[in-house]
Design goal:
heterodimer; A: 86 residues; mainly alpha; Non-ribosomal Peptide Synthetase Peptidyl Carrier Protein, Chain A; 4 helices; globular; B: 583 residues; alpha/beta; Rossmann fold; GMP Synthetase, Chain A, domain 3; Thiol Ester Dehydrase, Chain A; 3 domains; six-stranded antiparallel β-sheet; 30% strand; elongated; ANL_N_sf (chain B); AMP-bd_C_sf (chain B); ApeI-like (chain B); ligase (chain B)
Chain lengths: 86, 583
């Protein structure tokens, strides 16, 4: 799981071209959107697409749970792990 | 405006809305909700002098009920793009806050219950609307609209697209808080008696699923969504769509073609603005880039001194008076091509952003002395247009940068802006500089500011370690194998790289001079590659803090060598050559 957390941090930085941000700067528990890392709605689209492509998982953005999955890197890691049936 | 003009549903059991929670709301149910909301507004507005209500709802059905009730109760409905604190603060003379307003304690979040009493329905709708330009940065302009104006445009759109839209349910990935969404996903289906979906879809996969349920359907989209696709979504379900509308900005040709390939529909693009409403449409089939005016729209051009390409002027039954856009155009017969904007308002992901507003908010931070903000276009390193901020830090800010580092400081500044700005208006790329670069005319044109963002950061020296730049000049490229630049410097005594050299006789250490040469070489001459060595380094005279110096730089593109020289008048302090190699 900790590997996946680090992998996701790198993915987030790469996909969203976050200058000045290193994986160490992203707290696994902090909110990705709004407060915390401060990502926006377009970032959410980009990130959702990248996750679908990289991990071949389907994301239902309309599902309330999806908000929880995208709340932090930790949640995202749990979601990806579960979706892949690990 | 009469009831029949606003609502085109023929029977009480007609479907009005497929609600976000899965309910199917009939016309009869809608009328009950509308009557209850009207009863509430009548009593609430009776005590208020101005009859102005601010309206923001995430849910389109709730929005629809409040909107129709407000218009039926002769209110002026103020409909901003978002419910951010700064947006609420900027609205003037609001009596009622309807919908979701976290910053307003008196806001009425939920619709009144509809089964308490039998309430009367309004027969006429005389209220008015105030919309806002798609600014995401605090100073969007308010635009007054009357219902007859909006309905005049809907009549024109209906005439243009009657066949394609007949009986279609409307699903949208854009908000109803903007004119395009308000017209296309709400007022138009209402007036032609078609159902709409209550949610704003984030996920196209979910939209395609629901399109199958509600078929035949239309997708009211925008370039932001159409440009971000996944081939693995169930695109075959797009067969249940009768068309895809796109508005908010021109769709890139590649995106239009890709959507056509995936969905079988060439997007129908609508060109317009909050000020003008709809102006023209196009479909990029067969490589077409030209826009065709909507029926009833009179177009002309206006040439002003600053822009070499004429600006588009619009007159139509749904514009109060003739309006000159800031869009440059070239006409080809009756049709025209858009040639970009003439003003400095930036547009990112369909949102107009006032750069000066972002600058002003930044400058209000205790960490910042002054700031300039510009749009950094999409390129190989950036997957989309973003804002870049060039910031001169205050003493407090400089201290933060020295002690806690750039990434922490950037995060503090983003957090500072977040309550007042939409996400896309918060700068993504940051540069901290000693001062905002100016050219010899004392101006800071965009091209000059851009240089700060385009050079490779890995060599850059922290701003606090740099001398004050009094003047920097880069020679125009003459096609030769050399690029050169000159920088006039003054060396402050309190640079953090100076202490320790030496208490009794302060000097600028040689290694600091090398750093400066490399920094300004990278910045002004865009040297590619990595530092690989140095030669012929000479320190001839001591360079002393508080002095002035000139730095001369010349880069040999073939040999990848940067020759530098620090001097003042006849005195030469140091010189040498730095070599680079490609990674």
């Amino acid at each position: 799981m900790s590997n996946l957390v680090e992998e996701l941090k790198v993915l987030i930085i790469d996909v969203l071209n976050l200058e000045d941000v290193t994986p160490a700067d992203i707290q696994a528990e902090e909110p990705l959107f709004g407060e915390g890392l401060g990502l926006d709605s377009i970032d959410a689209l980009e990130l959702g697409l990248a996750l679908q492509k990289k991990y071949n998982i389907s994301i239902d953005a309309e599902n309330e749970n999806t908000k929880t999955h995208f709340a932090s890197v930790n949640n995202l890691a749990k979601f990806v792990a579960e979706s892949q049936g690990v | 405006m009469q009831w029949q003009q606003l609502f085109g549903y023929s029977a009480d059991d007609a479907l009005v809305c497929a609600a976000a929670d899965g309910r199917k709301i009939s016309f009869a149910e809608f009328k009950r909700d509308l009557a209850a909301a009207c009863a509430y507004l009548h009593s609430a507005a009776a005590q208020t002098p101005r009859k102005r209500a601010a309206l923001f709802c995430t849910d389109t059905y709730q929005f629809c009920v409040w909107l129709c009730a407000g218009l039926g109760c002769n209110l002026q409905l103020v409909i901003p793009a978002n419910n951010k604190r700064a947006t609420a603060n900027a609205l003037e003379a609001i009596d009622l806050w309807l919908g979701e307003w976290p910053s307003q304690t008196s806001a009425v979040a939920a619709l009144p219950l509809s089964d308490t009493a039998v309430n009367a329905l309004p027969q006429t709708f005389e209220g008015a609307l105030q919309l806002f330009t798609s600014g995401s940065s605090g100073e969007p302009q308010s635009i007054d609209k009357t219902l007859p104006q909006l309905m005049a445009e809907i009549t024109a759109q209906q005439r243009q697209w009657a066949e394609r839209t007949a009986n279609c349910a409307v699903l949208a990935t854009v908000s109803h808080q903007h004119i395009y969404g308000l017209l296309f996903r709400l007022l138009w289906p209402l007036s032609s008696g078609r159902p709409f979906a209550g949610r704003t879809y984030v996920d196209v996969a979910a939209l395609l699923e629901d399109a199958e349920q509600l078929a035949p359907a239309l997708w009211v989209a925008s370039p932001a969504q159409l440009s971000r696709r996944n081939e693995t979504w169930a695109w075959h379900k797009a067969a249940h769509l009768n068309g895809i509308f796109s508005s908010g900005g021109p769709l890139a040709a590649e995106d239009s073609a890709a959507i056509a390939a995936l969905s079988g529909h060439w997007p129908l693009e609508i060109y317009g603005s909050t000020e003008t409403g709809g102006i023209a449409w196009r479909q990029q089939q067969d490589g077409n880039i030209l826009w065709t005016p909507l029926a009833g729209v009179q177009l002309s051009t206006h040439t002003c001194g600053e822009s070499p390409t004429p600006l588009l002027q619009v007159q139509s039954p749904w514009v109060a008076s003739g309006f000159t856009t800031q869009d440059c155009v070239t006409f080809v017969g009756e049709r025209f091509e858009l040639k970009g904007r003439a003003d400095t308002i930036a547009k990112i992901e369909e949102k107009r952003i006032s750069l000066t507003q972002v600058e002003r908010l930044l400058a209000a931070s205790p960490l910042v002395a002054s700031a300039r903000v510009l749009v950094l276009p999409k390129n190989t390193r950036r997957s989309r247009d973003v804002l870049g901020a060039l910031v001169v830090l205050s003493a407090v800010g400089a201290e933060e940068l020295n002690t806690r580092g750039k990434s922490t400081l950037v995060r503090q500044l983003r957090t500072w802006l977040a309550p007042d700005l939409d996400g896309v208006a918060v700068p993504r790329s940051w540069r901290f500089v000693g001062e905002i670069p100016v050219n010899q005319q004392g101006k800071s044109p965009r091209e000059l500011l851009m240089q700060a963002f385009e050079h490779d950061q890995s060599f850059s020296v922290p701003a606090a370690m740099l001398p004050k730049v009094e003047f920097a000049e880069q020679d125009g490229e003459d096609g030769s194998q050399r690029k050169s630049a000159r920088v006039k410097l003054r060396i402050p005594r309190d640079l953090p790289c100076l202490p320790g050299h030496f208490d009794t006789a302060p000097v600028v250490p040689g290694v600091v001079q090398l750093d400066w040469a490399m920094h300004f070489g990278k910045q002004l001459l865009q040297i590619p590659g990595e530092f690989s060595g140095m030669e012929n380094i000479k320190f001839k005279q001591l360079l002393v803090p508080e002095e002035q110096a000139e730095l001369e730089l010349s880069f040999d593109i073939d040999k990848q060598k940067l020759t530098y020289r620090f001097f003042w008048d006849g005195d030469e302090f140091s010189s040498g050559r730095l070599s680079f190699h490609n990674v």
